[in-house]
Amino acid sequence: MSAATGSKVHTLDTATLVLATMRKRGISGLPRNYELVYEALNASNSVLTREFEALGRMPAQDELDLLCKKHFPHHRRQDVVDGAHEKISGELEGMLRLLKQEQTSLESYSKLLGETYNRISTKSATSAEILTGIINVMSNATGDTMEKGKVVVEHMVERAREMEQVKLELDEYKRIANTDTLTRLANRRAFDEMLSAIYNDRRKAMYYALIVADIDHFKKFNDVYGHPVGDRVLTIVAAVMKSALRRDVFLSRTGGEEFAIILEGTSQSVTTEIAERVRRAVERTPLKNQKTGLEYGPITLSLGICMASDADSAEELYNKADVALYSAKNAGRNCYQVYNPELNQEFEKNWTLYKK
Hints:
Layout: H1 3-11, H2 14-24, H3 31-42, H4 46-54, H5 61-71, H6 73-121, H7 128-177, H8 188-197, H9 202-205, E1 208-215, H10 218-225, H11 227-244, E2 250-255, E3 258-264, H12 268-283, E4 301-307, H13 314-330, E5 336-338, H14 342-355
Parallel strand pairs: 4-5
Antiparallel strand pairs: 1-3, 1-4, 2-3
Helix pairs in contact: 2-3, 3-4, 5-6, 6-7, 10-11, 11-12, 13-14
């Protein structure tokens, strides 16, 4: 292998290894799968690494999701959300049963009124005793129907209160389930939902763009200074990126040192301007220990861009943005790259070298 070839191989980092592993094992390019494979290959959790390897060469999606729920708290919270959904469904079914009972009661009352009218309309209804009896029947029936209706209303009000409480709990669980605990940004689950929604309307999809960003040489911060410093880097980058974007722009941490930005109503020129603004903002932010004064060195980002009009699905959009990200890293990092078909050839070429 030549020196130039060796240089290319060394530019392949953990992110590329993750993508390569996913392709080799037939793992779908879902963001939550990327998070799982990244953590498994990172070897920071030996149990997760062993369990991932035990899945074999072609793991099923159900098996991968079970590992996600087991090792990542934000995935486990989905069970709570599902439970709240079931409770709301149960309350709705109960309300429908009450309404059906009320309907049956009213139908019986209506039938009784009809029969009473027919009796009054007959000539035999001239007796005061008969009229008195009819009035008593109607009075009792009316009172009974009103009492049943009152009970139904009380039950409906109570169930509505319970549903409102469950809704509040569900909203809170959803907020927690969609938030990254470290950076307080949207997490991979929220990113999955947002990304998949892009192609719900094909006409609007052409005005979306995806930017994926990766902290350069992030492993160095963890290896040299420890994970607490690595976590500090993540929180700083998250805060800087957030401050560089409009409040209505979707920003998430999608796993490890990777972030994603989804832009709506944008063009390629505007998207590249935003990517460059974010890149410069992070580059200009010093990383320093406030107590000791130790400089940890600069933080930089590599960014990959893909316009939604250049993909036919959320998965394809993510994969193409990831290829552009790889190209930016291979070009020396601390830059952005916009996806174009030629980048696929670059990626495949260097991946072939990497496999050797």
